[in-house]
Each structure stands twice: as C-alpha cells, then as structure tokens.
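The material for today's practical consists of a large collection of protein records. Getting from the letters to the tokens is the skill we practise here. To make this concrete, we reproduce a full record directly below:
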Amino acid sequence: MNQIERLKTEVEALTERLSKETAAINELTQLAATETLKDRLKKAREILERRELLKLDRVALSNTKDQLHAAEQEAERDLRIRNREQICTLVDEIEKDAKSMDAALRRAGKAYNRISDSARQVLALGSNAEQFDLTLFKTTGPTTAAYRYAVYAFAEAFNLEPKDHIDSWPRSHDRTDMKGRILSSFFNARDRWREPELLKLEQQDTEYREATEEEIANAIH
C-alpha cells in the first residue's frame, strides 16, 4: 500500500468513526435527558469527554486530508515531470528519425536523378535503335516517368492519400528554412526543459527597458 492509499484508508476510517461517535453522543444526550440528576451529571461528564475526543478526531481528519492532498499533488507533479521527460525522449527520437529520413531522401534523390538521366538517354538513343518504336514509346510519357514514379513511390512509402496533399512543392530557397522551422517547436520544448538557463536568457532578451539618452541620440542621428 502506497502513501496515498494509506492516507485514503485513514480518511475513510476517521470519517466513519466521527459519524458513529457523533450519533452515539446524540443518543447519549437524549438518554441523559431522561435520567435522574445524579445520573445526568455522570452522563454529562461522559458526553463532554467524548465531545473533546471528537474534536481531536476532527483535527486528525483535517490533518490527514491535508496530507492526502499534498501527497496527491506531489504524485501529480511527479507524473507531469515523467511526462515531460518522456516528451524530451520522444523529441530525441524525432530528431534522430528526421536526420535518417533526410539521409534516405537524399539517397532517393540521387536515384531519382539517375532515373531521369537514363530516361533522357533512352529517348536520345531511341531515334536510332533497332526495333524500337520511338513514336509509340513517347506516348507513355517517358520524360515525366521519373517524377511520376517518385510521386507514387513517395505516397506508397509514406502511406499518403489525396487528403494529405499539398498545393505545390516548396520553392528551392524555402526548403531548408522551412525544414528547420517545422520541427523547431519540438526541439525548443525539449531544450527549454533540459536547459532551463536557455529560457532565462530568452526572457532577459525580451524584457522591456527604457533606452538610454545615448541610444536615443544615436537613433535620431
């Protein structure tokens, strides 16, 4: 039994005991009202003692509830920390797999270029090749064969469907920059947790301060 389960058991036991003791004191009070004066005094002392004990049980219950609340909060915080650490581990995997994917796609790009070159050579040689109908061959779209094959191979390898399409391929000068931006939120989330001083530096960089007279003068001139 862990700490939280133990405290929950104690809270339940104290709550039940308080309920029973309160009922017993009420019953004893009603019974005392029918007794003789001597017996009333005796029962009155017993009632007072039991009420004082009841107060102590209420204090014990309150303290135990506070301990339970603190233990639950600590457990929740531990869980959040474990989740945050798991996020960092997953981002490590994302970074590793992204690099692997980049390398694999670069290799695929080289194969794509070789297919394109070979296709162009086939067309060039086809005009003077034995039993090769170049006119008929051209109807199959050989000049775009490498591209079309790459599109279908990419969709098959990545399990992409029409709903996943993009409007157009990125422009050449945007590719590297956008690749870096797309996963940056993952890397920032990991690095800020593992290296909290980075977050402090960012906050310092964005803190407002009034410009000095020298800075204002330089800006004007």
